[in-house]
């Protein structure tokens, strides 16, 4: 039986969010959501936002990552990280619930 756990956020992702917010007058949280669409059925939405009433809030280093209640089951046991490679820097999601994904890395199916 699989155990449902909230997503984990790496130290590197929290550090990058802190860098983004360091020069902001009104710092925002990182929202990670799942919505229908993309070439594989679902896609990730990653944006800066403020907390809402139904959000799960993951907090470290004074920074917050938000997951709404509808997206939470799709992100169970996932790892939210930040990748800085030659092809670009971006927040990435390692999602064990995804049965397949496309080459862009933002679209997946379950």
List keywords for this structure.
110 residues; mainly beta; Hypothetical Protein Aq_1857, Chain: A; three-stranded mixed β-sheet; 43% strand; globular
Describe this structure in words.
With 110 residues, the protein is mainly beta. It has one domain: HesB-like domain (Hypothetical Protein Aq_1857, Chain: A), CATH 2.60.300.12. Helices cover 10% and strands 43% of the residues. The chain has one helix and nine strands; from the N terminus they run E-H-E-E-E-E-E-E-E-E. A six-stranded mixed sheet has the order 4-5-2-3-9-8, covered by helices on one side. The chain has a three-stranded mixed sheet with strand order 1-6-7. The longest helix has 11 residues, at 11-21. 26% of the residues are buried.
CATH architecture: Sandwich
Spatial separation of the terminal alpha carbons: 17 Å
The CATH topology label is Hypothetical Protein Aq_1857, Chain: A
Per DSSP, the total helix count is 1
Helix content: 10-25%
Rounded radius of gyration (Å): 14 Å
What does the overall shape look like?
A: globular
> What's the mean pLDDT score?
86
Classification by helices and strands: mainly beta
What's the short version?
With 110 residues, this protein is mainly β.
